[in-house]
Design brief:
single chain; alpha/beta; six-stranded mixed sheet; four-stranded antiparallel sheet
Length: 260
C-alpha cells in the first residue's frame, strides 16, 4: 500500500488556480524532493496536501485513508461570502495531521509570545496516540541541543535559525509518518544552514520519510529517492536519484540551455 497518493489534484487561491492535474505516489519508506522556480506553486501544492488549503479537484490518499471529501469543489459565486462558515471543508488539516502527515511550512510560522517549552508542549496534540512524547522530546534535544538552553525564551527573541529549529521540532513532536519540509534552510547563514541540513539528514536516518522542497540540489540529492521538477503548476519531469544532474543542468531542463 502506498504511503501517499495524489490523484488528479488541482488547487489554488480562489479564483486563481495555481496547480492542476497532479498525480504522484510515494511508497512506504520513500523520500522525494521538489525543485523549481519560486512562485510556480510548490508551496501551494504542499498546503493542499496537508489540508491548509482545500483541494479544488482530485484526491489525497494517505496511509490508505482518503483525506478529502469525495467530489469537486462547489462553485463560489459570491466572493465576499465565507462559505466555510456554513459548509464543511473538503479537507480538514486537523484530520491530516492526526493521521501522521505533518507539514512544516516555509517561514517558521510560530506564536511569538509563547516560549520554546510551551510550543513544544502543545505540539504532540497532532500525534497523540501514535507514539511516546518523551521519546520524541529526547530526539528533538539530540538534534537541536541549542534549544535546551532556550526553553524559557519566547519565540520572538530567537534568531531565525533557532526559530527554524523550533518549527522542525514541532513537526517531530507530532510523531510524523511523513513530514513535509518546505525550504527548511531558506535565508539562513552558511553555518546555520549546514547545521539544519545535518539535522534533516538525521531525521531521514531515523526512519521518517520526507517531502523536501529546497533550491540546493546537492542537499536534495543526499536525502531523496526521487526528484520532481515543478514549474507553472505542473510536474514537468520525474528523475530517479541516479538521474539527478547538476544545478546548472536542472536549470537548463526548466528554462532551456541559456539558463545554465
Amino acid at each position: 500500500m502506498s504511503l501517499l497518493e495524489l490523484r488528479n489534484l488541482s488547487g489554488g487561491y480562489d479564483p486563481i488556480q495555481i496547480f492542476s492535474h497532479i498525480d504522484l505516489t510515494i511508497e512506504a519508506g520513500e523520500s522525494i524532493g521538489f525543485f523549481g522556480p519560486n512562485g510556480h506553486g510548490k508551496s501551494t501544492l504542499m498546503k493542499t496536501i496537508s489540508g491548509v488549503l482545500a483541494p479544488w479537484t482530485g484526491d489525497v490518499i494517505f496511509d490508505g485513508q482518503r483525506m478529502n471529501r469525495v467530489g469537486d469543489r462547489g462553485s463560489r459565486r459570491w466572493r465576499n461570502f465565507n462559505y466555510d462558515v456554513v459548509t464543511r471543508r473538503r479537507m480538514d488539516p486537523k484530520t491530516v495531521a492526526r493521521a501522521g502527515l505533518i507539514h512544516v511550512p516555509e517561514g517558521n510560522l510560530l506564536f511569538p509570545e509563547m516560549t520554546v517549552a510551551e510550543t513544544l508542549a502543545i505540539a504532540p496534540i497532532a500525534g497523540r496516540g501514535r507514539g511516546d512524547e518523551a521519546h520524541q522530546l529526547e530526539l528533538v534535544h539530540a538534534l537541536f541541543p541549542r534549544l535546551r538552553e532556550r526553553l524559557k525564551s519566547k519565540i520572538r527573541f530567537l534568531s531565525g535559525g533557532e526559530r527554524q529549529m523550533v518549527a522542525i521540532s514541532v513537526g517531530l513532536m507530532g510523531n510524523p509518518k511523513l513530514m513535509i519540509l518546505d525550504e527548511p534552510t531558506l535565508g539562513l547563514s552558511p553555518k546555520l544552514r549546514q547545521e539544519l541540513c545535518q539535522a534533516v539528514g538525521q531525521i531521514k536516518a531515523s526512519g521518517v520519510p520526507l517531502i523536501l522542497i529546497d533550491q540546493d540540489v546537492t542537499f536534495l540529492t543526499e536525502l531523496i529517492d526521487r526528484l520532481y521538477l515543478f514549474d507553472h503548476g505542473r510536474i514537468s519531469r520525474k528523475l530517479e536519484k541516479s538521474e539527478i544532474p547538476s544545478h546548472d543542468d536542472l536549470m537548463a531542463m526548466l528554462f532551456g540551455d541559456h539558463a545554465a
